[in-house]
């Protein structure tokens, strides 16, 4: 499995089968068709940074049951090869991650990860040579090897998002699509509408500059010039580019490149004491060490750009500081770094301490690319955990070491997709309203799911609804039979009967939520629920006001109760119910809920709110009336027993509020048909609360304590 610098990894054709030689030949043909000749003909200056003499290219390696390959731009080629301390830190971060994974007994129990890391020299040709060497070596040495699945920590090119061309390419770094959009917004916000662009011949620069230029022009900007830095620029080419930059009227230059590719040009510009250029850097070099070098301050001061978020990896700094050279094979890169850092060979390592050095290698306060390397290593480890059946390991916690696998297995088939070809790198999405079977190899017609009258939950809710209707009917009959008694006549018996009728509607409207949603049930159910509850609360509001006014009249012989007679009470009920009726009517006429087959949770048939605020406005108005009722009833809760109905209303409103406050989070978090069940439960619970709190105490007096159902009894003058 390759964890690779993908400046070249995307050139490998994953569809080519066979051995390494056939793959290498296929890559050569691909490059030749693109006009890149002579894959094996590498510049002489490149060979010295990846191999010694005619031997195999150098590699930092450690054996393991599964070997992960890595390619890093340890050297970059300018006038002379330069050792990149930052890239060496990336390389050692991979080593740190692999060793950390090996120490974690729960991640890959019984499996040791190895690594083989090579230098790309930040060059396509040497990257290819390193890649072919990795394929040959890992296939011959590793017991498990997946040689065609690059996981990139640095390749941001938008071209790599094409899953048809690069089906098994993965990365832990965002695409340039987001960076380009941010850079365009940055330069246009600052009013820089006349800019130059500069890049290299690779896909990273090509696609990045192309996307930037297109979006920049759409925002009214103009590209003054574009400079392309050759792969191995000559001194004359460097001077020509420097001349063009100096002579251009555009003072803002947007650059998509790496620091190694820019070094020769920047050295030339610094030597000429060029100043006044506003550089806009891509993420590949915006945090580069050369930006902090005093030599480049006059030239690069004020450079702007976007970088990846910086993080701190626990334990990384201590690991990096303890790296030591060694004469053992496979430690050549570490020895190169040590000699580059201190200028002495490895046998003098005891005298030197990396803690006292200042370089991009030891600066790990806020790592960015290193974190992408770290995440990529763990992504591979977690994929291996699934592939080697580590999750289903027995009591001894061992993975299946010698299991073979292909690039098509770095992933899984999702909840509504199928994959019926072994080794396929892509899943096929099932048609709308179809679902994948248990094995996820074929699509089957989705079974419609809704809260049915026949299922257990539906039967229970229907039974509770009918119980509520029956109880309301019985209480209505009792009140009608004893309508001439004082306890029924008190506080306007007409309002009591209207309250009972509205409660019956509250119970019955819950039935509209059960069964397969239709056009009419979707339109009417929330409207019926909203209007029924508002009518119920309006009656309670009138009752509460009457209680308060009656007590006031009893104390001060006030005529206020006479002024709030039956006609005024009916008017208040109509006045408080009318806004809800208008709201529901407008909602249903403008954007009524419609039946909708939601494939998110199987095929759930539900009512889709075309205008979600409508439902919350209905709930909000109910809440407003309930709050007013609770407030007024609370004020009258300590009135003498003569007017104890205020206490009953207070208690019923507390239950009402408790139910509906609990409803909102439960409704939002419940999937599919369960959200409907939650709403029905809230309707039934609050309806039962009102019915039992308001009317059961009165029925108890009427039926069980008839001696108290006289005028003296309800005025408090009859002894208990």
UniProtKB/TrEMBL annotation:
Any GO molecular function: G protein-coupled receptor activity
Superkingdom as given in the UniProt entry: Eukaryota
Gene3D superfamilies linked to this entry: 3.40.50.2300
Residues that span the membrane, as ranges: 457-482, 494-515, 527-551, 572-594, 614-636, 648-668, 680-703
Keywords (A to Z) from UniProt: Cell membrane, G-protein coupled receptor, Glycoprotein, Membrane, Receptor, Signal, Transducer, Transmembrane, Transmembrane helix
Bilayer topology annotation: Multi-pass membrane protein
Residue ranges of domain G-protein coupled receptors family 3 profile in the record: 457-718
Record Pfam families: 7tm_3 (PF00003), ANF_receptor (PF01094)
GO cellular component: plasma membrane
CDD domains attached to this UniProt entry: 7tmC_V2R_pheromone
Location in or out of the cell: Cell membrane
Name this polypeptide is given: Extracellular calcium-sensing receptor-like
